[in-house]
């Protein structure tokens, strides 16, 4: 591929999420030379996506008139930063350090940060096509608007998937007075990631929010009915609903990286602790990467908002010639019907989990692997979260965990 440049920038950022936003801001903050150009295929500048499955669904306006409150800091207020939205980078030549946009424009760059994120995984069963206006995915503001519009006149929703987006959205929709059923493949939400004891608590939160949970309920097909859809479940009764929301996970968007010749083993771009790829001048950050964490001593794949921001900050700083390293444990928070779970962990498995309960319904779950603390999950126990996150970062022995566990 040979691209004739029509302009050259110091940093080209490809993507419109938190990693892209943070990379552009950090590059400029670290004194990186030249113009920064952020190119995103969303129809708006970077915005706060976590609200889509919570606040926006609870009280959102389908016309989009209140969307401006979700926008992140306006990068164009910084010197020599430009944003192009509603377009995509369709070709990238790392050797020539040039990129082509969907409109045919070509851009030369000194450094490039790929932050293309991830996209929802459609449900691979008959009748699950989201193009029909009844079955929905949720990743962007446009998706959220379409879902809110589809809820007009609806009385019931089936949410397929009991991950955090599915649980958050289900609780938010139940708060609107809808009858909501969650069909998840695990017995309780997040059992594999967080253990049965925490999963049971999440199931209780859903119940208290008015959500019906169908565990170990693999969806095998979706049929149209007179007013909506019938969701068929293996080894169980079908569920009828006016609207279906599929929250069955996400997959990294690596097609641009792969077409540019970057290695993508396991479907992710591999980067070091400074977010550098194997190709000079090209960095990557966020959901599409497997990044080496300096404290963990190994590569990790995470899909959390805060970690994408942190990776983007590191990528932008590195591209500007600064010194930044990813060495903090990944983490997230999740609001399920007003109950907030906070989590900090390496996220690649545990041997045991011990749960300590606190007055008022709070708890702390301590995760260990090979005798070392590898994670902490809390509800109404921020002191334990801070302590646990520090112990995880230091790979402290399990005996360092405070308190006496009462559940295993």
TrEMBL record:
Q: Which UniProt keywords apply?
A: FAD, Flavoprotein, Oxidoreductase
| Residue ranges annotated for the FAD/NAD(P)-binding domain, each copy included | 12-306
The record's region (Disordered) falls at 384-408
- Keyword Flavoprotein listed? The answer is yes
Read off the InterPro entries from this record. FAD-oxidoreductase/Apoptosis (IPR050446), FAD/NAD-bd_sf (IPR036188), FAD/NAD-binding_dom (IPR023753), FAD/NAD-linked_Rdtase_dimer_sf (IPR016156)
A Pfam family annotated for this chain is Pyr_redox_2
Task: Give the protein's cofactors.
Answer: FAD
Q: Does the keyword Secreted apply?
A: no
This protein is called NAD(P)/FAD-dependent oxidoreductase
* Taxonomic source organism: Pseudonocardia tropica
> Lineage of the native species?
Bacteria, Bacillati, Actinomycetota, Actinomycetes, Pseudonocardiales
